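haha ok so turns out i had the wrong file open the whole time. this is the CORRECT one, sorry everyone. sequence first:
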Amino acid sequence: MRSKTSSCAALLLAAAVWGGGAWAQERMQLGPSVRATESSSDFLQLVATPPPPELAANAEIFVVSGYEPARGSGRDTSVRVLVDRPGSKVLLVLTSYDKVLWKVDATPTTTITGIVVAGYHEQAVATRVPTRGWRANLPYATDTDNSNFLKILSGLHRMFGVEHIDAFRGSYAIPADVAIRTVDARRPELTLAGPLPVPPRRSVQFTLMTNNFVPIRWSLTGPLDKEVRTYSAEGKVAVSLSLQQQFRLGRDQLESADLRGGQAAPVTALPPNFPVFSWPMDVAYDTRRDLVAVVSLGGEGFLYRFDAKSRRWVDFRSMRNIDVIALSYDKELDRYVGWTSDGALIFIDMENGNVMSRRVVNRLTTFGRLYDRGNERPPRLTIVPSGDDIMLIQIAMGQVQRIWHYNVKDDSMEFTYSADQ
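then structure:
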């Protein structure tokens, strides 16, 4: 967006400059005049009461959604939606963040059973199609891999009991003309359940530590121990089974406690030449050397190491603005594996400082449904490395919700477990 100062300067220069005792003039042209829309019988009354569920009975459900109407030169807020489905019944859902005047039309013998409208700013519908309209509390969505799209599906499920929609037209800037003539191909993204996990190509087992520090064996398709356990979504705790110690982040300091009980206490203070902890994010345990690693975000970010046996700090390295929010240690390949705030896996060789990064967030099936992409950062994932096999685990409400498996050598990603399926 142009600044107010630069816009004013451009207008002054274009309007006139003084030279030789006369004004040198330059012609400018405003955009076309857009006349006010008068209220008429074409405007559909939108009621706030819940719409009747039977609107969706034997009807195709079409959703048109976006942040704002596309702004061409002289364009108003109007979006024309043409529904061309002769012989079909259609429930039309229109959502936007910005103000929109939806102009709805339909071809002969196309029946629109109802129009559901939602928006952060005022919405209006103009139509001559015989139908009814309702206001609803639904977000806008620009694509299907987004938590807002899932909220739209969940809202339609509450209102009408539907499990899927038949067509979706989503974009940031909603085109001036949207014509829906065909239903979309049936695909999991348009369903409330979403894409299903796939059988893994190889068998991999790994260990997850419960909140009570009990190691539980898992496979890519679920726990091998069927007893219900709880797990931490936050991380910030590392365990040494050999030393029977836990190390955790608390009050911007590293603390330790006996696994068998006892009060947690701060470890040795940071050396005078170490930067203070600022936004410490996670802790990992190097089982080869009995070293505790702490990664932080503050400033350029730092990775600190603490010797769990001698109880002294060893060293630190700058992360050089690599924002790691989850950290694990891989004994098999002797490296740290992290998950960054922008959805990348990083592999750290602490001895020489080498870092390899692979951005994989766009390859995690259903992951986009967990947050509002474009407005929110990807949520934290727990990383469990085992050589070239990396397990990316979503934990919420104390339970494992999803598992993805990434193989470094093959550069392959698969969605293997969902608690919902």
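The chain has two domains: 46-190, 205-418.
again sry for the mixup
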